[in-house]
Write a structure and sequence with these properties.
Blueprint: H1 5-10, H2 13-18, H3 25-34, H4 37-43, H5 47-51, H6 54-64
Protein name: HNH endonuclease
Organism: Vreelandella alkaliphila
């Protein structure tokens, strides 16, 4: 997404390379289960925007109650 003209116009090169939100692996996987790359780029360009989403906030709050190193199981996908 970083090299698409739509985002090159919206964000400077420096912003695209340095404005990074560091996430733990479970949070990263959960966010990508909820939203596409494009939705993330359009709606959630900051940590504050991510945390304002109710589904993401609920997951983060739930994960915070778990011990360090806890790895939530991914939902089982049904094969077609």
């Amino acid at each position: 997404m970083h090299n698409k003209p739509r985002y090159q116009k919206r964000y400077s090169r420096e912003e695209r390379l340095t404005a990074i939100v560091w996430l733990c692996h479970p949070c990263h996987k959960h966010i990508h289960r909820l939203y596409s790359e494009r939705e993330l780029a359009d709606r959630f360009a900051s940590l504050e925007a991510l945390m304002s989403d109710d589904d993401i906030r609920a997951f983060v709050d739930w994960l915070a109650t778990k011990p360090a190193g806890f790895k939530p199981k991914s939902p089982v996908r049904k094969r077609r």
